[in-house]
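The authors assume throughout that readers already know how a fold can be written as discrete tokens. In essence, backbone conformation is discretised, so a fold becomes a row of integers matching the chain in length. A single example would do more here than another paragraph of explanation. For illustration, here is how one protein appears when written out as sequence plus structure tokens:

…
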Amino acid sequence: MRKISVKKFGGTSVGTTQRIEAVAARIQRDMAKGDLPVVVVSAMSGETNRLVRLANEINTSSRGSAYDMLLASGEQVSVALLSMALESIGVKSVPLLAFQLGIETDAIFSKA
């Protein structure tokens, strides 16, 4: 029986394309051992800070849904790149975003 495991990789772990490829290789090794991973990734190292700076250049007080959408784009990039790295080594993956999984938060923005 395959074991479902949740694996979280932070910004440093996915900070470069080479590191993303290393994460993909680790996932492949874990799957070869029988794991069925659910993988969560952060934005690439420094990306969230870059996005916050951009937001502040436009509007220093905006912390609503548009701000959250902007910051989430960093994670979206990491998800897509990791899925592409997995595909390149023959590992099938299904890249999903929170809304595609039915994950909801409340109306208190920037605190999810």
Notes: The two ends are 34 Å apart (CA to CA). DSSP finds three helices and two strands in the chain. The first strand starts at residue 3 and ends at 9.
